[in-house]
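I am still learning, so can you show me any protein sequence you like together with the matching structure tokens, please?
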Amino acid sequence: MASRGDILVVGSINMDLVVRCDRLPAPGETVLGGDLITSPGGKGANQAVAAARLGGRCRMIGRVGGDSFGEALLANLAAEGVDVAAVRPLAGVPSGVALISVAADGENAIVVAPGANSRLSPADLDAQDDAFAAASVLVLQLELPLDTVVAALQRARRHGCRVILDPAPAPVAMPAALYAVDVISPNVSEAATLLGCGGAGPEQVAAALVQRGAAAAVLKLGAAGSLVWQDDRATRVAPFPVTPVDTTAAGDAFTAALAVAVARGERLADAARFANAAGALACTRVGAQAAAPRLEEVAALMRQP
């Protein structure tokens, strides 16, 4: 049995197939890249590993395929200290796979084949009620079926568990029920997709997300840091400047750090500063889970003048 204060992640588990290239291809264009790198990923698994590395007690609910990728993904999560008792391999189903191109400037383009992730249903959550009862923070993303994400949110609410939603990949029409979270934390492009608009300032975007039902919004601003909108007030949170190598893991490290800090009872602005540091460090390394920083590294960065 997990103890109260744990972080529960209901999310995707993928194997990332990564190729680095000088620049991302334009539509219809082929570019030559480097050697193929195979590494564990999936937004849910990335956030679970990052949370565990940052000192969080993390349990995960998800699905992998009954294949060699699934075996490797499960073993990696367990080795990182994530409780995988609720991650079940599905025979005859492929594991989720993400095809990732990373340009020399650190920007990336990603296509995901969900595989076993698409088989996690609302009914599968019934057997995991203890995990929701034990958790203080539930972390959600949108690489699972949306009805499953809604069901996880509703179950967390019944147990008084706070909910952080990283709405990625952002759908054009997100179910209204998914706005009713404690914290919604998109990046700028995801927020524009959710709201159907672009060009608005971060304050206006964050306020609009809260107007749709979230208790608070933490907007990821990349190199500009982040913005917290809570109680009708905006707080800008300064970035930690770094030279990016690969931005693949930045958003997931940010979300995980936010969850760890919220679970510790920190104020949201302080949690966002911790998340800024974790996201910045993740940009300095290649990969997804491999790039997730550890608690002592984040603490050291935050101490720098």
Summary: The chain has a mean pLDDT of 94. The longest helix spans residues 268-282. The radius of gyration is 18 Å. The CA atoms of residues 192 and 199 lie 8 Å apart.
